Structures are given as structure tokens and as C-alpha cells.
Amino acid sequence: MTVSSTTVKNSYSGNGSTTQFAYGYKIFADSDLIVIIRSAAGTETVKTLTTHYTVSGAGDASGGNVTFTAGNIPASGETVVIIREVPQTQAIDYIANDPFPAESHEEGLGRATMTTQQVQEELDRSIKLSRTNTMTSTEFTVGATDRANKILAFDSSGEISVTQELGTYKGTSATVTTAAFVQRDIVKSTTSAQLNNVYICVADSVIGDSLTDTDHFELLVDAVSAATSATAAASSATAAANSATASANSATASASSATTSGNSATASGNSATAAANSATAAASSATDAAASFDSFDDTYLGAKSSAPSVDNDGNALATGALYFNSSTNVLNVWSGSAWIAIQSDTDVKVSVSSNDTTPGFLNGKLVAGEAVTLTENNNGGNETLTIAATDPTALAIALG
Fold it and tell me: Angle 322-328-330 (CA atoms, 0-180°, nearest 5)?
């Protein structure tokens, strides 16, 4: 048997229904295949012969099939990978002076070729130098403990090395370091001159090194310069504001000059000024008339269907303000805290003469109101009436 194909792997996409997948190369036993299912998320699971699948075609030069058992059919989104994995052992034993069977010898050569192909398939998936590239050594001697949580990198000579995770923050330090740092350590300065500046270690450093030592540290974030720039920007903004103010002052000065020129023109036009003064006087008269009306309007609020809480301008009511209630047909006065109805008696008209001799004439004609008392004097002869009130507003109402 010859080994004429270099193929050692087949790959297929699952769909949830296909159970049989072919492999196109010779194997010697069912166990010479490894079957892997890769999920859509990239998780790889090695399946077990007879438990998840069966194999047919062992010994056939053209290959055979892998058939998945019920409940293990590859789903949609999953990838089926079938790889030949012939054991890397030599099972043929040659005995001296025995016949030399060609078939057994050819099988041994075939197995050797197959294992070589399997190694090549793994090499093809590895990271390696190109044919024209060079590296002194691809070995590293860093132990497992020192490699933990580190990354594979290249040093300044391009040689392979193990280094820590890129950019590990190691806290703060003064201008003169208080801790030892290794490459790619990130540290923030607490010294006033470099406050909040962020540095990265570019070469292993010992306690007492300066963060400004460029042989060991490189500045990543220049917070001091940023703050200075911010201050300069604020100063520029202030200067711009001052310039704007100066421009405004210049505009005001120009306006004043224009006013002076206008006054000169006014002086030369006395007649026009006199006419303007007359117009101003007329306008003042109109203003005074409007003010008088506004004052009257604030005192007499006019007819309202209900008691108002503010005057006609929306301002607070003034003591003594009046309004006519169109619902009750009664005139009301504001006492300063409440509306008081002004009652009238239209049944009797009172006449008073200087020689009145009728006893009780005045007292019988007038009726005292709320908080108002009437006292008749000189009863029956030139009577007089004393009106007293405990509430000044009530007295004003009584007197009309």
C-alpha cells in the first residue's frame, strides 16, 4: 500500500439532521480517528468512540465514514472535525532468517509516513519563524510560578521572553521611588512638581530611582502640563472677556461723542427744540391724566359680580377701595382686611333746619350702623347729632 495523500483531517458543518460524515484517508483501526465538535462559541469537545459515534471503513485506502449515534447529532452552528491519529508506535517485529513479508514491511512504512503527516499537521497550526527568519533561541527558562499571569513577549533583541501583563498599575510613588518596579509597571507621581503624572517602567528599577530618569521610566500622561494648559486657557478666556468689556466701553464713549454732537445740533435749532418741548409738555399732561385715571381706577374698581381680591391692575387692594356688587346691587368698601357693604335707606329723606323744635327729630330719622352710635343733643331745639364709631372705616361709611 502506498500513502499518496497528505490529507489527515476533514471538517464539516452540522445542521441538526446529518448523522454521517466521511473521512478520505486510510486508517488501520477504528480508534485511529479523533472526532471533535466545536461549538459556535469556540468550545471544543472530544467525542468518545462507540458512545457518541461509530467508525466504518478501517483498512480501506479511500477511507470510510463516522456515524453519530442518536442524541449526539451535530447541531446547526457546530463544526465536526475528524483527524487521523495513528499511534506513534512500531508493532512489527522482524525475526532473523524468517521470510521478509512485503505487506508487513509496507504497513510499517505506511504507519511511519502517517505519523509524520500527523506531526506536520500540528506544525502547520503552530506559531513559527519563517524560512528566512532567525532567532538565537526559542526556549525560555522562566518557571511556572514566575510565568503565572504573565504574557509571552520579545525583548529588545527580538528574542522570546516571558513578561508580566502589559501595563499593571502599581500605585503611587514620589519623585524618588519608594518601591522597586519592573518593566511595564505603571505608577503615578505624588510629588507637587509631577503631581498626577503617570509613568511606565521601561527597565527594571530599584528603590530610590527617579521617575524622571528616562533610562528607567517613560512619561505616559503629563497631568502637570495639562493643568498648566487649562490655566492658560482660562487666562485667555479672561483676557478675551476683558477685551470685550473694553470694546463695549469704547462703544459707550463713541455714543457719548454722538450725544455731544447732537446737543450742538439742538443748540443751533432752538425753534425745533421749543416745538419738541411743547410736545413733551402735552405728553406729560397726557401722562398725568393717565396717572390720575389709574389712581381713580385703583380706588373705584367698578361693577363686579363677586368680591375682587386684587385691584384692576392686579395689585393688592388699597384700604378704602370701592366696588359695586352687580349681584346684590350693593356698594362695598375695603376695610383693609375685608369688604363691608354700604347699606342705604331710601324710604326716608331727612331735612334739618336751624330752628328745629321737634323732640327726637334727628335721632328718629337716622339709623346707626355696625360699630356706629348716634347721640342727640339739644333735643327739641336746634338739635345736633354726635356720631361715634369704634371702627374708622365704619365711621367713614356712616358719613358717606
Answer: 35
